[in-house]
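RETRY 2/3 - previous attempt timed out on the joint model. Re-submitting the same 613-residue input unchanged.
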Amino acid sequence: MTSHLPALQVVLPLIAAPICFLIRQRTVVRVWATLVAWASFAIALALLSEATRGTISYSMGGWAPPLGIEYRIDLANAYLLVIVTAIASVVLPFGRTGMGLDLAEGREYLFYSAFLLCLTGLLGIAITGDAFNVFVFVEIMSLSSYILISLGKGRRAKKAAFYYLTMGTIGGTFYLLGVGLLYQMTGTLNMADIAKHLPEVLGTRTVLVAFAFVMVGTSIKLAVFPLHQWLPNAYTYAPDNVSAFLAATATKVSYYVLVRVVFTLFGAGFVFGVLRLHWILMPLALAAMFVGSLAAIYQTNIKRLLAYSSIAQVGYMALGLSLHNVNGLAGGMMHLFNHAMMKGGLFLVVACVALRVGTRVDDFRGLGRRMPLTMAAFVIGGLSLIGVPGTVGFVSKWYLVKGALDHGWLAVAIAILLSSLLAVVYIWRIIELAYFEEPPPTPAGKEPVTEVGFSMLVPTWILIGATIVFGLQTDLTAGLATAAASQLLGVVP
Amino acid sequence: MKMLYLWNYHIVIVLMMVGLYIVIARDNLVKKMMGLNIFQVSAIMFYVSMGKVTGGTAPILPHGAHDVLYSNPIPHVLMLTAIVVGVATTAVGLALAVRLHEDYGTVEEDEIYAAERDAE
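RETRY 2/3 succeeded.
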């Protein structure tokens, strides 16, 4: 039974999705989807504990790799599986009232079905060791996320979803072409096998073109600056809990694919030693950090503000990758985990606020008194986004700075600190409105704004609480991320 | 001679650029979807072309002829999946275009943006 856990991890949500169609009844579907997410989380934890003892290789259907499809779980993706399933487990039970879905009464099962398919795709990308299989799961994830985004209220959600669909399909097809070129050169699709045969043909033009296609395709999905234009609209107009889920998982999984391609497939020696990718990726990452943060300062919609901040945070992760040493990559991997928690938590806070007042920044006026628990969660999440010691944001930035200093790149380290100061500006704007301004008078005939219910506060505080717990208790995440980074770079920790 | 040998790949590049150009340059959402389709078809053609291996044979006992043009089945099988993905993408994209048409009364992107500006 336990030997089939890797397959179950993907198959469970995949089979659970059509079952939602059979159940249809709103409350039952909700409980069902939540239970499936929790079961996936349990499986991911079991896989992580197994992966710490050594890499797991699972042959799908009993066909031995490299001919069959291999599910290969080492520390890096076991860690990612835990993050994705944890976020899904927290977001799914999040209050029904706070979702803001554009669906007719009684058709909510469609949402849960798409959500579980999206989860399947995310888990599949993380777990598989087959380059073509990644494409299939990327498309499962993307198609269901287009649907999830288009379920947002208002016509702009559909526009955002259509735009994301165009960009996402181009990205996916680029990846497909890149994998095709690699297949042409190596005759295999298994990642480990490609990595074995690739050194014989490295440096040929076909391999260079393949690398370019795969990199650009993945970067579109990851929303690396300047390929980020789909992201702000998609996150702004998506339903509130979908924003929380996608912001916390979709870009993270794409980051993982990028890391896999660079370090496992092509190898750090070729990518950074011969191609000198860091001279392209690092300026883009630094630009993302500043452009994203500066754009966030001027936003009047809180979800758009957080979306632009996400672009900046993707910049930090890309920076970690381009530093290509253990500390830098560990910082990037850790930021993947930390940003999932804090951005997921912040989007859930916004969902609570959206339910009571709205999503304009002005709506936060005086909320510190009206919704004290929700706003306290926002403050902690915001501090973590800035990178204040004691929160997770500090830990990952600390490793990034260490990684930059290991190279002796002082300017990069200073840039990390400066862009963190920009985060202070946009977070402080909200905090000032919430705590130092009087709440607007309640319009006649309306209930005064009050705190949201238990079913929304608990998931929010689980994520926000985690940013503090893992900010103080750094052994677990830092240890895992460093071990994963060492494994990827092929150095003994 | 080499040009002719690579004929398929030239077509692939042309189709890919045509598709990409339509996606970027056309305002009509349905035309955009068609462009996206052409773009995806170029990837399918690319895989099918590279499946042709001159001089190879299927792993069965040859009957008479030895040097045949052999089709590697794997790229074909992969493309079955890619075709399904393409159909699904087109379906979702066109469904979104229908919804946009219901909401805005048009599928022209510039008119949608104009409607957005008027609404603000």
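Chain A has one domain: 2-489. Closing ticket.
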